[in-house]
Structures are given as C-alpha cells and as structure tokens.
Amino acid sequence: MKSSTLLVLLCLQAVLVMGIFAAVAKENAAVGESKAIDINPGQLKCCTNCNFSFSGLYTCDDVKKVCDPVCKKCVAVKTYSGKMFKCTDTFLGMCGPNC
Fold this sequence. Notes:
single chain; alpha+beta; Cysteine Protease (Bromelain) Inhibitor, subunit H; 3-stranded antiparallel beta sheet; WIP1; serine-type endopeptidase inhibitor activity; Prot_inh_BBI; signal; Bowman-Birk_prot_inh
C-alpha cells in the first residue's frame, strides 16, 4: 500500500473517531443539564447547622417548627417532639447567623 493511501486512511479514521467522541460529549452535556443544581437566590434568616462548600454553595440542616419563608423546598421530618420541617434548598453565598 502506498504511503499516501495509508495517510488518507489514517486521517479518515481519526475524523471518524473524533466525530464519535463529539457525539458522546454532546449527549453527556445534554444529560448533565437536567441534573443542574437549583440555586435559591434568597438568604435564610439564620442557620446553625450549615453545610458550606468551597464552591460558594451551602445547605442548612436546621430542623424547625416552621420552615423559613425564603425556602422553596421544605420537607417534613419526624422527630421525638413531633413533626418538624427542614429546608432542602441550596443557597449561594455565606451561611446566615446562628439561630
């Protein structure tokens, strides 16, 4: 086989492999978009049990009798003293003052 034919075949194979990788990357990006974190732009009044990350995002693990009005997703938590609530939102910024 001539070297020019071999070179053309290798180039075509490289283009094919790059096309496959591009298609897979595009598919993974579309899947990743649906898993994005929904960030609450508000700020909690106070938070004692703060889970802060270096990315600037935090969640508050406080369990209260009434959920903070800023909270979008509040879940009921069963405790010994009865039904309490916990905000499961992710916030951007620094944790509020202790409650």
